[in-house]
Amino acid sequence: MSEPSPHRHHAIDYVELTVTDLAVAKRFYADAFGWQFNDYGPEYAGIRSPHGDAAPEVGGLRVDSEVRAGGPLVLLYSADLDRSVQAVKEAGGQVVNGPYEFPGGRRFHFTDPSGNELGTWAEQ
Fold it and tell me: Model's pTM, two decimal places?
């Protein structure tokens, strides 16, 4: 029997910061706040709490050529990604990216009726 997921369906689960230089960003956040990171290659690092290795990831640093308008990308967790895609569409949102595979699962991005972009991810 597997352990229950620490993630809660449709709750804010993760905040992703876009950075233009991953090494500089990691150094800044480590020095300023004591953040620790899980490295996933040259373009992504998961943010761990400064309270020890056992703490789950709470966000990520993602490399892009520019920082997106509107600030960090807020990610929700879904126990059923395909149903969440359908729910977003039925509620008047627009899927703008995905669903797509990424290390750790699948995700999609959507905009709400005001144009705010959020993401939703699932472990499978």
Answer: 0.70
